[in-house]
Amino acid sequence: MDWSAIAASLTTQGLEVIQDPQQRKKLSTDYAHFSPILMAQLEGKQADLVVLARSEPEAIAVIRCCVANQIPLTVRGAGTGNYGQCVPLEGGIVLDLSPMQRIISLEPGRAVVEPGVKLGKLEQQAKQMGWELRLLPSTYQTATVGGFVSGGSTGMGAVNYGTLFDPGNVQSLTVLTMEAEPQRLILSGEAAQPVIHGYGTNGIITEITLPLTPALPWREAIVSFTNLSSAIAFAQNLAHQDGIVSKEISIQADPIPQYFSSLKSYYQPGAHWVMVIVSELDWLAFTQLAKASKGEIIFEQDPQSPGKKINLIEFNWNHTTLLARAVDPSLTYLQVFFYRDVEQILALAKLFKDEIMFHIEIMRIQGQMCLAGFPLVKFINGDRLEEIMAAHQNLGARIANPHTYSLAGGSVQPLPESQLIFKRQVDPLNLLNPGKLTD
């Protein structure tokens, strides 16, 4: 392939094309380094060209070029994913949609945006109108809406709204097909499902409609417990309180809090933390529940207070792993669904007490409050990691393997046939992020 000629052709159409090797390398990576397995598998994978699209017509121009020359195309947002979602396995072109930053409309209950809009910016503007997003990843300050919908699944707000897959959490997507003459599909409701968390394999998203929820005044707190079972029991109890509105409930088992440098002064060895974001309006009921559960509130703050420097969401979800690895790069992680079985967690904590540190998020799954684990693991080698995952499964837990770049390999459930059919319809030449959908 004559990449200079391809670059020249795109440049003459007004597109910004990056050919510099270091920039191409940077824009072909994400946070797959959380996994030493993925790091080895993705070593050296990078785009031959990176193209920035500022509008839908520019994205269409890149699609036409790729189809005409049978060039693989991988779409990128801010690159905050963990599974190599935006790493091009077969080279080709990385299409960076982060310049598409228009907030098309923002009204009570609904936002319509381009894929490059940062979640943090959208959240800020929505709050000025008295609304907020239902779900936010811990990377919301830098992550884009398109990247979250295409590569993410859930985050803060999961205790109320579950995941992006749940009906209603993504209202519609506008998607371009990978054809010589791209079709512009508007996928509403259930029709959008094959594209959500599809790693950009099932079409290129150019417009997203998300629901908003009324904004509440929130208060952040850390409740400390002397044993893990009490911490889990309190977290579950809080999640089930009909009169206390929570936005985030996570459990950071000892010794995970030692990795949180800006919170280190609050940590005592042996302490298990429950980190929460609850409605300011329900603060009294929350404090009484914590006291009755024999928990000690060791930290609290109003997130909107002037001079606020600590943001508890940035200690949870994937940020827990990020912060821990900043201190100890040998650590990696798992993704486990324990659902409601506390005994699984306690048995595994005893079995792997020197290898696993439990980070658990409370989230809503099919109407039930469930325990989703993101335990930190001291990495020894791939075989040992497989043994640890097998031990989880033998006890009845479900693994969503974060050490594979394959969407099928990392899913708890088999990919639905409808998703594979949709892939063949919108990408008949299999040029969109090839190698990522199935093993």
Automatic annotation (TrEMBL):
Entry's transmembrane regions: none
InterPro entries: FAD-bd_PCMH (IPR016166), FAD-bd_PCMH-like_sf (IPR036318), FAD-bd_PCMH_sub2 (IPR016169), Oxid_FAD_bind_N (IPR006094)
GO biological process: lactate catabolic process
GO molecular function: D-lactate dehydrogenase (cytochrome) activity; D-lactate dehydrogenase (NAD+) activity; FAD binding; flavin adenine dinucleotide binding
Name of the molecule in the record: Slr0806 protein
PROSITE patterns: FAD_PCMH
Cross-referenced PANTHER family: D-2-HYDROXYGLUTARATE DEHYDROGENASE (PTHR11748:SF119), D-LACTATE DEHYDROGENASE (PTHR11748)
Residue stretches making up the FAD-binding PCMH-type domain: 42-215
